[in-house]
Amino acid sequence: MWLSTLSFRTGVIILSLCIPFYIISFAQMALPISVSLKSALWVIFFGLAKTTQYGGLTILGAKGLKRLKEYFKRRKETQYR
Question: How far apart are CA 71 and CA 18, in angstroms?
């Protein structure tokens, strides 16, 4: 209920935060650290990625997602002119 009161812009920012969290969750596997620490870091960052993803989608809602799709559709049309 509380998340739906936040603005569209906040939803887009929160939703875009999931991208770096996904990258970090998998990129840390290349670090020379123990397997247990890698597992713990993966759980933390993957959890943060999922939390920001679903939180952002909740803030945006169905109308916000439609608005976001229309923005990218208009942007794509003007790009090819």
Answer: 20
Q: How many residues does the chain have?
A: 81
Place of tokens 């875009």: 16
CA distances from 18 to 4, 15, 34 (A): 18, 6, 25
CA distance 6 to 55: 11
Tokens in use for 79?
A: 């790009």
Mean pLDDT of 45-69: 88
| pLDDT digit string, tens, across residues 25-42 | 999 999 999 999 999 999
CB-hemisphere CA count at 13 Å for 39? 3
